[in-house]
Design the sequence.
């Protein structure tokens, strides 16, 4: 998979770029968010996602890794294709999308052209536990996308506790000490329930 491109920007428009990498020109689809962060410098580096279909190979480019990660999470939702995800990232900033998902704000997601009520609800339901809020300086505000947290929650479910009940306790433990291991999270949660 092509995961990053470094080269010379040959063409630039609000929806796509052509990047020359050692004589090969790559057409890269971009969001308005990425376009707004590009300078007029010829030298460019983008994080990319390659979508392979039966009839095409399409490259999507992102100025930041966090935007690419959010794009990948969005296209994992049933009913959200690559063009809809790109439209979302053009209409709203990654932080606005993430905070809308975390807070369950259906109307913000539904405000994007082409997204109805059911699709907006599905985005929130599918991604609420996967999306993490990132502040301007890239420090995590929430540890929602934490592997230790997911493993601890799964283990507690196997032990018979509901996910809703245990997720609050686990989040509280992680807010107090983000470095806790899976075992420490499980033991701590069992003591508090």
Sequence:
């Amino acid at each position: 998979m092509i995961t990053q491109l470094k080269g010379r920007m040959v063409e630039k428009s609000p929806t796509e770029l052509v990047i020359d990498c050692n004589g090969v020109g790559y057409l890269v689809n971009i969001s308005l968010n990425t376009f707004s962060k590009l300078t007029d410098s010829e030298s460019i580096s983008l994080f990319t996602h390659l979508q392979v279909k039966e009839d095409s190979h399409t490259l999507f480019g992102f100025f930041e890794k966090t935007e690419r990660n959010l794009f990948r999470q969005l296209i994992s939702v049933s009913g959200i294709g690559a063009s809809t995800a790109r439209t979302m990232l053009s209409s709203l900033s990654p932080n606005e999308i993430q905070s809308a998902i975390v807070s369950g704000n259906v109307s913000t997601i539904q405000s994007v052209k082409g997204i109805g009520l059911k699709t907006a609800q599905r985005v929130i339901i599918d991604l609420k536990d996967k999306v993490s809020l990132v502040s301007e300086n890239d420090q995590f505000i929430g540890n929602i996308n934490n592997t230790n947290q997911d493993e601890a929650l799964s283990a507690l479910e196997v032990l018979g506790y509901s996910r809703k009940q245990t997720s609050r306790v686990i989040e509280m433990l992680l807010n107090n000490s983000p470095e806790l291991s899976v075992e420490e999270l499980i033991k701590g949660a069992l003591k508090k329930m």
